[in-house]
Amino acid sequence: MASQNINLFQTKSTIQPLLELIEQYVRIASMSLLAFVLTGGIMVSAAFYIFGQQRDAMEKDRQLLLQQVKDNVSKESLFLMVRARIAAGEKILSTQVSYAPFIDTTIKVLQSFSLSSFSMGQKNSVSITVSVASLTDATRVLATLMDMEKKKEISNPILQSFSMDEKKIQIGLTYTVVL
Are residues 107 and 170 located together in one domain of the fold? Predict the structure, then answer.
């Protein structure tokens, strides 16, 4: 008697041997393609990670450099201000007349006598008033003045005034300092 069960599934494949060979190559190709896609994805992810790290490092460097520039702006402005002031100071010093020769000649004229007044005029002229105790001291002051003229340290010595009282003698002198 024949079986009453109908089996719709075939137990044996009726695929031809050529199709089996193609199916085997398709499986190998699909596995290779899957491995290639996974490997490519991992490599692209790694590249994005590495480039992202480099971008972040460059951004940190940029922020650091911007901060350094901001810090150096104030230093540079101070430097420029100091440099401008030095230039102005050099200009002032180049036009300013040194008082040292005027004071030096006055000290030589005075010797150890007391100075009552000192003034500087135009064209390197100096006016002084010297107080001395005796006529010999007064002649020593005048002799020093004449010696300085001979040595060309001063020119145009003039006795402006000469006053004498019981205790002291005052001599007013004017001369031009030779620079």
Answer: yes
